[in-house]
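#lab-general

N.A. 3:47 PM
ok so I finally got the sequence cleaned up, no stray characters, all 581 residues accounted for. can someone with queue access submit it? mine expired

B.Y. 3:52 PM
send it over

N.A. 3:53 PM
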Amino acid sequence: MAAPKKGRRAPASQGHPGRTLLLVLIVMAGLIGGMFYSGTKAPRLGIDLAGGTSFTLQAENMPGKPNAINETNMKTAADIMDRRVNGLGVSETEVQTQGTNHIIVNIPRGTNAKQARQQVGTTAQLGFRPVLTTTLGTKTPEPKPSPSKGTNGKGGDKAKGTQQNASSSPTPSAKPTTQGRAVTDSLKKAPSAKPSPSGSTKPSTPPTPGGSEIPPALQKQLDALDCSTKQNRAAAGEKAAGAKPTDPVVACKDDGTQKYVLGPLAVEGTDVKGAKAVFDSQQGQGWIVQMDFTSDGGKKFADITGKLATKTPPQDQFAIVLDGAVVSDPRVHERLNGGNATISGGFTQQSAQDLSNMLSYGALPLSFKIVDETTVTAALGGEQLHAGLIAGAIGLALVVIYLVAYYRGLALVALASLCVSAILTYAIMTLLGPAIQFALNLPAVCGAIVAIGITADSFIVYFERIRDEIREGRTLRPAVERGWPRARRTILVSDFVSFLAAAVLFIVTVGKVQGFAFTLGLTTVLDVVVVFLFTKPLMTLLARRKFFADGHPWSGLDPKRLGAKPPLRRRRTAPTQTKEA
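B.Y. 4:20 PM
back already:
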């Protein structure tokens, strides 16, 4: 007897379409829930839709430094520009790198575009200045005269500029990197008040490097300086950055906790060869910052630290000044020779890296020029958004009319798939706003409109494959399963080409065109997800319904309208008999 033949499997397994559709619904609910949980219910709009100013800056190497444009330097430059524009009190300002040598600065409407343009287009100014005196960052109140003994009731002497360390945390210390020993980071006590010749006491006024007291005009500026707000710190930084290198200045700490009187510029930022954050596990100092100077910079740094090491607090400190703001004020205990130094004192990994980046940026041989500037009013942005939505609605309406006229009942499957794709796209774009600072601009809207046609094309490919199987004489259920492998290959190839084009466009372009490429790539990926996880399972379920299975004229799958052949029937062959031996 011949062994009976095993039944052949169907060309494609129907699986569990209900479970797949449930998974899609769960993902959609999760994304929508994430929108409400994050408090973001709409995509962030770009400058061309919301209104504002956008700058595109291109980095350029300085003469003699051909390889300065790299990822680290560009990121540091973007951080410095972000500090600048946010110092203007600007909210929701975006500063981000694009490509290898471009930085995009998007500033919303209501901002002084001229001032912002000046801020982002100016090269960073880094320098080292000796600290003459320091006090709290708030405005010093005017002292009231009070009578005292020995002054005939006319009031005692006034203390000009009370000197104190405003920070309760240890002040960073600087030491040579070659000696390999720890330096105490604790604060030294300020000089005590000494009796004046008239018998009254007052704090001693720190002398300038020349030995004279702080000029009254400079002391008055220090007392009047208020570093408690970003706007005040930005104004003080701009004034200090514009001062001559030989002039003393008043400046704020970058966090507003202290204000200073600083001496003339001792070391320029271009004298710094480089800086890096290092974790010191051998001496237990934690995170430190190592600086290397050029030959001229090393001599200058040795001279200034030699002078500061002989002074008393706070004049034993030097301020690292970036764009007129003090980013660090380490204390010096000895002359630092050798062209290198280490700054230590309670750094975290992030704060050490931030300081090293700032020090390195002051020495970067980079300059920037604004290659594109776009200003859009709120009214114009609203008009463009309105026009984009109308264009999208018209395109969607034309697709729907075509699907209903040609595919009839199958148009319901296409419309349901388009709705799922639209919900996923909207939710993902909304969540990408706070996640990666994605902003929906006009080119991105165009990419979404183009994606409607790409998504509809995938449905059409699958529907035609099903119709081809019906024309061959098969019923709907096997036609749905047999047509899927052929349609799947075509859909994957088509979407791969679209995604490849979007990826190339995203890489080689700069600015707003990347919004078009990003949206096109995102919607292409979602097209594959929707067709595989929603359209195919939905067709499998509908093939079991009588309306579609029986080929109703309005189902779009009527065999007569499609010119179907007679049903295929398999020939029955008589079983083979074998003779027994």
